[in-house]
């Protein structure tokens, strides 16, 4: 089982996050409900950095959900937009900032970006013996072979 939202937010690295757009800045407050109480997490995003504090201050976007829903988002089992459409997540404010949560939360253990997988596949691709790769198919170059 992966980390909980609280564990993840407590240990979130405040270093540069190249996966965040350089021009995006804003504040998010996560209201995590559990057993009749609410924990507030305040995220400040600027210059590809995320700063996390515990605060109930007003933010540009307030995201409310049960603890189990935030835990699923942290593990990559639920995207924030899907949670909104399923009414598992409620928001108030600048909804564009909601999509940043998908980049901030790490996703499932061992997850890799699709571009990284594509680059690895291209790096491992070699031409078949006796031929070259052209338009995704092998071309025979042996004597008497047909291209």
Explain how this protein is built.
- The protein is α+β, with helices and mostly antiparallel strands and 147 residues long.
- Helices cover 27% and strands 29% of the residues.
- The protein has five helices and seven strands; from the N terminus they run αββββααβααββ.
- The chain has helices at 5-11, 67-74, 80-85, 98-104, 114-124; strands spanning 26-34, 37-46, 49-53, 61-66, 89-93, 131-134, 137-140.
- The strands form two sheets. A five-stranded mixed beta sheet has the order 3-2-1-4-5.
- Strand 2 and strand 3 (49-53) form a beta hairpin.
- The longest helix has 11 residues, at 114-124.
Helix content: 25-40%
Main structural class: alpha+beta
Q: What is the tally of helical segments? A: 5
What's the story with the biggest beta sheet? 5 strands, mixed
Distance between the termini: 52 Å
**What fraction of the residues are assigned to beta strands by DSSP?**
25-35%
User: What characteristic shape results from the CA principal axes?
Assistant: globular
Q: Output the helix-strand order.
A: HEEEEHHEHHEE
Mean pLDDT: 82
- Low-pLDDT residue intervals, each spanning 5 or more residues: 133-141
Organism: Micromonospora parva
Domain SCP2: 8-105
InterPro entries: SCP2_sterol-bd_dom (IPR003033), SCP2_sterol-bd_dom_sf (IPR036527)
Protein name: SCP2 sterol-binding domain-containing protein
Keywords summarizing the entry:
five-stranded mixed sheet, alpha+beta, 7 strands, SCP2_sterol-bd_dom, 147 residues, two-stranded antiparallel ribbon, 27% helix
């Amino acid at each position: 089982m992966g980390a909980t939202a609280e564990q993840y937010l407590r240990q979130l690295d405040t270093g540069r996050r190249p996966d965040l757009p350089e021009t995006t800045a804003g504040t998010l407050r996560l209201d995590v409900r559990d057993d009749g109480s609410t924990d507030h997490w305040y995220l400040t995003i600027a210059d590809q950095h995320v700063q996390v504090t515990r605060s109930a201050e007003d933010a540009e976007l307030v995201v409310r959900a049960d603890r189990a829903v935030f835990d699923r988002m942290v593990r990559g089992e639920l995207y924030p937009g899907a949670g909104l459409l399923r009414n598992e997540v409620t928001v108030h404010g600048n909804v564009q900032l909601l999509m940043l949560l998908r980049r901030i939360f790490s996703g499932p253990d061992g997850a890799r970006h699709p571009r990284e997988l594509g680059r690895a596949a291209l790096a491992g691709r070699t031409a078949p013996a006796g031929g070259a790769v052209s338009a995704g198919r092998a071309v025979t170059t042996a004597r008497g072979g047909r291209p």
